[in-house]
Each structure stands twice: as C-alpha cells, then as structure tokens.
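Example 4.3 (complexes with small molecules)
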Amino acid sequence: MNLDRMELADCGTPEALVAAILKQVPDMPIPVPIKDVAMALGIVEIKEMELTGFEGGLIAFADKSEGTILVNDRSNPQRRRFTVGHELGHFLNPWHLPKTSEGFRCTTGDMRASKAKPGDRAAQMEVEANRFAAELLFPKPWFDKEMAKLAVVDVEHILALATRYDMSKEATARRYVDKHREACAAVVSQNGKVLRIYRHSSFPFVEPERDSPVPSGSATARMTVSENEVTGWNEVDGGVWLGSQHGRRSPKAFEQVLGQQNGFRLTLITLDDDDPADDEEDVERAWSRPTFHR
Ligand SMILES: [Zn+2]
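Answer. The structure with zinc ion bound is encoded below.
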C-alpha cells in the first residue's frame, strides 16, 4: 500500500485525516488492513507484546517522522485492530503529544473515551484518537451505504457488521447506534451490572449509570439468555430505562438482548415516542411503510 503523508498535512480533525487517507485508497479493502495502512504512513514496527496496565502505546520522535506501536497481545484480534487504529490516530495528529518521554500509554478506558471535560487536553487527545480509529476501521463511504439499507434496528446487523469489518461487537454496536437512522441505544452489562452505554444523538437519555444495577423492570434483567442467543423485541415501560428524567409520560421501550460469554449482555433499546393523539396518523403511516419492531 502506498500512501503520501504530505496529503495529510493540513487535516485538522480525525475525520479529515481519514478522508485524506481514503482519497488515496479509493478501493480500500474491507476489513481495512489497518497494519498495512499504519506501515504505509510512517509506523516502522507494530509490537504485539505483554503490556501491564495499558492496552496500547506509541513511541515516536517528537517530529513524528517515524513511530512504533505497542499492542497488548492478550487482547483478542478485533480489539488489537482498534488499538492500532487508536495509536495511529495519535501518531498522525501533529498536536498529539504524550505526557512523558515514554510516549503514549493508553488504557482500555482511554480507548472507550467519547467525551472530555473542557480544557482536559489529555482526555481530548484520547477522544480524537478513538474518533480516528472508528472512522478508519468503519470507513464512512462503505459503512454509511450499508447502514442506509437498514430500516429496522436489530442485534443481528451488529453481528454481521462486526464480522464484515473484523471489529469487536462492542465497537460495532457503538458505531451502529451512532449511525442508525432510528434513535436507539446500546447497553453493555455483565452479571446484572451496567458497564457502558452508547446512544444515538437523538436518543433522549439512559438513566442507569455505569456500575449501577441493570433496571429490575427491564427484559435484560428478567430474561434468561444463553451465550450467543439473540432474543426477540420485548416491550417494556420506557421509564425503566429513561427514569424520571424523561418527564411525566414515558414512551414504550423495546429491548433486544444478545447473550455473551462470562455473563456479558448487549442490549439494544428503541423507543416508541409517538403521542397517543397521533394514533390515527400512525395507522395511516403503518400502511405506507414497514413497522420497526417485531
Ligand atoms: Zn491513546
């Protein structure tokens, strides 16, 4: 793969950097050969090794003329792919500078950061590196086209997309809820505890916070789901997930659950937020397009 780094010189955002890469490789293979891309852009070595206390690292000259990426070899291949993308994001952004002379040492928490407090430059760099990795590993021109075909929300789409892009189910779920035309949210839980929440920009709110119990009224808490099993859609009161913050009237919510190893569950949530006064209009609309829930 041949890439000219000069073409990336004036890119001010992670998205612009990725666009400048894809412009040079219009026939980018899917899954994206992330190591080849990194090696074509000045990374001289990708070391997969035992790392203690962090998931990925970047050692580079201050002028970023060349760099070495470190990847935790205990993590699964899909996670390692994201790590390479994340570190390449630090490498290509000329304003990303590590706190110490040891270089970047990025934890699993850094790799999931999606927002930073104003003024927290270190956290902002992690958010930008994650945006870069997601943009590159789920390239917009391909991913958007595939998402545009999906009228409904379904966990099965996430499984198929994760395989196609060779990415983890969680990274795929995050991108999926972000890009779906319907407002939806994904909740990752383990043994009844909420670990992470991802939501579409117009999904109103998810009340349970990180490390709090999965709400007792939810299908996720009530249902027995075996490993790799995907449930149908279960209707629950929207208040279960939205809490009191949503106002007086809770919409109906629908939950679909994927059972995973070690007590992990991935839950997709959609809402039926229509006002009852619109019911007649709803009947008409129901005839003109497929319904979204089953
Ligand atoms: Zn980082």
